[in-house]
Amino acid sequence: MCNPAEHRRRSxxxxxxxxxxxxxxxxxxxxxxxxxxxxxxxxxxxxxNPLGEIAAVCWxxxxxxxxxxxLDEYVVMPNHIHGIIVILDRADYRRGTACRAPTxxxxxxxxxxxxxxxxxxxxxxxxxRINEWRCTPGAVVWQRNxxxxxxxxxxxxxxxxxxxxxxxxxxxxxIENPERKT
Length: 182
Description:
Oligomer: single chain
Distance between the termini: 24 Å
Largest sheet: 4 strands, antiparallel
């Protein structure tokens, strides 16, 4: 597998792929203009400020709002979040009901439980709370889109977990770091 950061730069949604189906997805969500809003890195560890705490609380609340979702490894960085979102097989808890046929999300028509809907919900909740805290109603917090990668096997999953876990120790070389030493 390639470096997850390198893959992120190339990641494009797969045409025709049902992003509401069960699976594990590596996502990166960046702040608008890569502004460092969430804290700092000190001694290779992320030190969250109040806005970073808000982002973490909203991230951890995703399964409360999406009962078919579990969260795996994640990290809030100064200007982005890396995380693994796991969409569970809906048949596991819908005994006696047929699973719906896969449907594609189209512009303006969100698909309930899709990766895009989960990310959109997180960004909306975090934006609302961050703007309330900063007294900046309507301010843009996040970039319009996000990066995603479908995790295809255990080896990839383990490599991505390690990348996320070690990300704060690599901040000096991180492509998202506006003060990166090239």
